[in-house]
Sequence to fold (298 residues):
Amino acid sequence: MKASLHTAGLAILALGVAAVVASSALWFAGGMNTGWTKTYIEITKTDEVTGIEYPDKVNRFVPGVDFLVPAIGAGIVCIFVGAAILRVHRKSHAP
Amino acid sequence: MKFASLLVITLASATITNAQPVAFDFKDPKGVNNIVFKLDAPLESINGTSNGISGTISADPAEPEKIAGKIVVDATTLTVPNPLMQEHMLGDEWLSTKAHPEITFEVKEVLNPKKSGNEGTADVKGAFTLKGVTKEITVPVKVTYLPGRLADRTNGKQQGDLLVVRTNFQINRGDFGIKQGENLDKVSDVIDISLSLAGAAAK
Fold:
């Protein structure tokens, strides 16, 4: 039981660290978008005959601050919860 | 020689006088016709597009002030890049597209027409309908007439003319019952709208 508490604490801590690292990495890779998350981007093209400029949509996930902030927040909560569990476990094993 | 010149002028005048308006269909299978809308917002401006455009404009290149017709935008085709924002925009509180699936502009009157070669400008007064509310607005329009260019867009399958229409104008969402006086700290009342359309008249 005590060993599984230690394992759970470690797992939650690791999950929190992974969430912070992965979401930050995804946000950096997406061009550090400080706006809203987008599921497509638009490339402006020009019709040769009419000269009309039109947006051509390309599916691409671009994480924004509405993705980054909750993901980092959830990660930090996991880190604190995992650390608290490990602390309780350590105290219960103290000589 | 004088008689010949007079005949040419008379025939030309008769042709212009009797010229029939040509109906240009704005349903574009190439998906180039587009509307772009923009609203200011604190984090970043909200930019959306649609190419669900249809409608017919009857125009006589010889008499640009005699334009009639209606442009229809399928409101359900309006898109913004954020899926949650998209859901809210089309939902009952904002555009309510299930109840009001069309945004329309019907031409009523053409003011201040100016023509230069195949291009013309005018202020077009018309009935703009959004979310079931109709208001009369006047928009500046630039028109380019491209005779015989339809074949270039259809790889020679169809002969005919093209009419390119461009306009930029603003409306206030509150005037059309879209959260009047609400959420002004999140989304501006003013909506910038740009339309770039090509209509085809097959011969």
Notes: Residues 2-92 of chain A form one domain.
